TrEMBL record:
Localisation: Endomembrane system
Transmembrane segments: 93-115
Main location: membrane
Protein name, entry field: Purinergic receptor
Annotated InterPro entries: P2X_extracellular_dom_sf, P2X_receptor
Organism: Adineta ricciae (Rotifer)
GO molecular function: extracellularly ATP-gated monoatomic cation channel activity
Pfam families, per database record: P2X_receptor
Cellular component GO terms, alphabetical: endomembrane system; membrane; postsynapse
Keywords: Ion channel, Ion transport, Ligand-gated ion channel, Membrane, Transmembrane, Transmembrane helix, Transport
Length: 183
């Protein structure tokens, strides 16, 4: 190497977990030779370069061409360091949930509109209910004083006469609410 020169790579890798402390963060060195060796290639091996120096002596111009051999060191440094952060974790989980929701939507679009058996998937995914075939709701007349529920009942009964399908839907929509909390 000293006679013909060489190109040597020095690689420094820093892989650090900052949760463990800065004392645990130590570099790993590796060395490698990048030039051709003398026995592998006869034409150009090692590391050399030529440079010219121009000078004048009296009235004559001269040039000296020098072929220099030496060591060329190429140093590369790679590093990776990390520390746990709860905010980054929650952001990554939130974006993952969003991507999964988007994936479900895209799969539904593909299955409904681009697959040959999209109609089968549509029947399984969506349930059709005819509101006209539902039984009419039962109404009771009370002589109790007027409450908010009774006003709602009167308002909905006037709607029952005009739109019977609407009345069934209105009563079924509000069946889970407490009395007086109707929409």
């Amino acid at each position: 190497m000293l006679q013909f020169g060489a190109v040597v790579r020095i690689k420094i890798d820093w892989i650090c977990n900052l949760d463990l402390g800065e004392d645990e963060c130590k570099p790993k060195y590796s060395f490698g030779r990048l030039d051709s060796r003398y026995k592998e290639e006869k034409f150009s091996f090692g590391f050399n370069f030529r440079y010219a120096s121009h000078w004048k002596w009296r009235t004559n111009s001269h040039r000296t061409l020098t072929k220099a051999f030496g060591l060329r060191l190429i140093v590369t440094v790679n590093g990776e360091a990390g520390r746990f952060d709860f905010l980054v974790l929650t952001l990554n989980i939130g974006s993952m949930i969003g991507v999964l929701g988007l994936a479900t939507f895209i799969c539904d679009i593909v299955a409904l509109y681009f697959c040959k058996q999209g109609s089968v998937y549509r029947r399984q995914k969506f349930q059709t209910i005819s509101l006209a075939q539902l039984p009419p709701p039962t109404t009771t007349v009370s002589t109790a004083p007027l409450t908010a529920a009774a006003v709602t009942q009167k308002r909905s009964s006037s709607m029952d006469d005009k739109y019977p399908v609407y009345a069934v839907r209105f009563k079924r929509m509000n069946s889970h609410l407490a009395e007086g909390d109707e929409c």
